[in-house]
Amino acid sequence: MTATKTPGEPPSPAAPAPVTAPGTARGRIRRPFRRNPWRHPWFLEGFTWLYLVWSLAPIVIAVLFSFNNGRSQSSWQGFSWRWYFSDPVNSVLHNPQLHAAVIQTVRLSVLTTVIAVPIGVAFALGINRWRGPVPATFNFVMILSYVIPELIFAVSMFFVFTTLFSTVHLGTLAEVLGLVTWNVSWPAIVVQARLLTIGRQYEEAAADLGANQFQVMRRVMVPLLAPAIFASAVLVFSGVIDDFVIVDLLSSSAGNTPMSVIIYSTQHGGNGGPALNALGSIMLAMSLIIVILGYAGYRFLTRGERGGGLAALTAITGEAP
Amino acid sequence: MVHPREGWQGHGMPRRRFLQGGMGLSALAALGAGGVLTGCASDLTGSGKLPLPRPSNPVTWPVFPGNAAIKSGLEPERDATLQVYIWEAYINQDVVNSFAKKYKCKVQLTTFNTMNEALSKLRSGLTFDVLVGATPDVLGQIVMGQLAQPLNHSYIPNISQAWPDYTDPFYDKGWQYTVPYTIYTTGITWRKDLVHENPYAMRNPWAMPWQSKYRGRVAILDDYREGICLGLMKNGVFDLNTTDYKRIALARQSLQDLSSLVNLRISQTDYSDVPAGQTWISSAWSGDMAAAPSYMPKGVNVDVIGYWFPPNGRGPVNNDTMVVLKGASNPVLAHRFLNYLLDLPVVLNNISWNGYMQPLTGVTPQVLVKEEILPPSLTSTVVVPSTFKTGLFELQLPVDADALWQQAWLVVSNGI
Amino acid sequence: MRGRKNAFWVALAAPGILWLAILFIVPFYAVLSIGLGKLDQLIEAPVAVWNPFDWSSSAVINVWRDIFGSTSFAGPILLRTIVYTAVASLLCLLIGYPAAYFVARFAGRRKGLFLVLLIAPFWISYMMRMLAWIDLLSTGGYVDKALGWVGVSPVNWLGGNPVTVVLGLVYGYIPYLIIVLFAGLDRIDPALLEAGRDLGLGRARTFVHVTLPLSRQPILTGLLITVLPMLGDYYTNQMLSGAASTSMIGNLIQGQLGTPGLESQGAVLSLMLLLVLLAPMIYYVIATNREAAR
Q1: What ipTM was assigned to the predicted interfaces of this complex?
Q2: Of all helices (H) and strands (E), which one includes residue B366?
């Protein structure tokens, strides 16, 4: 890394540089630059914002309608908190089915993330170095678990938990087991992809300096992999909150039915209403809070090991050291 | 499956393949009609045939030893949580809360999306107290599979408020296992302001969707029974439980023609698509259209929605039922729950939220309009007692005939 | 490979391997047993046959006939699925790559903000987003209104329109592609780009000769994560169209699995779909193994 630049950042991000480009100052080749090649890419930025608007507009609308005064999800009838807590029968707070769903979603997503991410990360690390037919086969199986259509997987899980492993009958345990199996491929694939581009030099340097394997793992590899681990945790977490198929088949009562099932099934059965939008907005808010907490936690835990806010930000999102 | 709340996993697919125009018919003829065909069938195991209730062939279900009704005169359970297994969004929470208050108990609603899912889970050992929403076509599986227990009538005096037919319906003579929940018809809904034809004035109103000028604006219900029945009725066949492969093939062909004529949409969202103006003609369930007032966009009056059902009552009708499940831990409360949902004020409260009407003698079009539950323009969605006798029920088919229907629907809904 | 070193890696991979063996391979075998098993007549439910010698091929025959037989009808569905997925994936790449590239390289201080905005779609139910789109696209909705301002006549977006289905697929899967691309592009060393410039490459040529080759692995992973599940997708078509003329193979499988008596055919069709996906999966594993060995 060159000392004068922060990673991923061209020399002059926002201010247009003088016409004689750095190339001419440093290099020997003269080319007729018409414009500064390090100028800010306004077109790209505009394009990105356009994409974001397209991507987020429906979300904004969905959140907006959760505050609708009437029962419609498409025509605005005034602002109200009724679907969150003021309606005594149908609000999320008062309807036992709805608020049990919120609790179950939190339970499932936290449990699944906490179990799947370590297993997946360890798997990726192990598979990367252990050569042989067994790891290769299981790497393939891991990808198979990603690619299989979810419905057939859910049906087979239902089958297995009701006939084969029937001590685990339907319920929260079955749901967690099914969800972890379904989502463990996220950390495995994403971390593996990242491992491929890190290379061995950091490990070897640490080993040369006398670190044993555990120390290398803890102090070199895991921090290097932090962004990938974080990304895969986000993917697992969001995969669970939105999962409908597996949980629907493996649930046994209203007490273990999460928000996703209610949203999907109510909308198709009719009489959905803005209460669903309220559930969706709660999902959004919860996830946002957890990510912010996670980021703050990361910053807190690594506070002695980096400098500057910018570096921390790019560390969690980009290259580590 | 025929239930309106059946999720989008409800469409049928074939087990056997022998219906594709002329070639298939001759192949079938060569193999001989009826019976189990080997070679192209799934390998079948198990034995036993389920009795198939029909209006002309009523069924009295057996009562199994070891699965007798509870004794009379018991008190409702205390500090109990009544477990109700029901379709999603199918009962007014207010009704549930008032029952809980009256009997000093809690009520937990667990929901399902498809009848198949519900039956699989019940067979796998999940227990609840009450199952709400089983249509007569699955009663065979429920009763013969011993998933339900016989009722003790002394706990359900409100049956007198229901239509008299329900004390001895053909699908459960002597109402041993069931009480009715909702009743509904299947008809045609259309936008009076966007469509020029009036089905009441047409010679063959069931053919109303078959008009190419409404391309992209026509929908039918995503249900293999309802779909093929539409094809049958359009061709003048009113035996909705037919096992005649020629008729089924004719229905299938008509539907394929419809599909290419109007780029047919197959969905269950008629209740919101028609008010929104996305769809102009659709086959629909009466309860869905009765709820249309809640889905009208601003500025559009509910009068533009029409619902047609044959005035002589010869159209598809169905009702679903409530049963008490065999492993119920609160059987007395369960019986009381069934009784509660046969009481007129409770029922009116339920209908006002649910849309689907219930077959009580006190529920008439006049009452519904007076209570402002239904707009006057949609009184055709109300089912009248005579329809129970004149209407055409879509009932359980023998296994091989079911395959014909499902295969025909498969081609219609996926093949082009 | 030293023995002790090997054991460490084995120990790391072991929990994952055990988990997959018990909770994936066993259910997978259950899928085979259902697909190649029998049907209970009374309750129209599938009966799993565990002994491979007792497996019955009737479901396979039925499905085969559906696709390839003389009375087949499923051919167009497969073709359509491949075409829609190919077009949607291409669009995902064309839209997602520039956005990921921008955020990875030029976002600077605002990178965190952009990341949050990029990840936000993951946190609200997919169904909610689709419903919002259905509302926008329905007749008289805002999209038609906006088109009206520019003088374009309204389009019946939801009446069985393949364009809507493809755009719906793009919309649903693009966040995954962007995140994976972002994670990959972020690691491209700017020093390499400078070197390109030093050597006289203009912006475009730097991109083609430096950035694009370095993006190969992220693009590959991104496509794996996007394309393969897209092939099995069914609710996009169901929600945005509902017409038989736009149905995909996922609709077929899903219908079979939901119908009593046809689950075994659904199982077989899913397995066939997996067989088709085998080739790209193997290619991915080989490509990543090659990278790891380097």
Answers
A1: 0.81
A2: helix B365-370
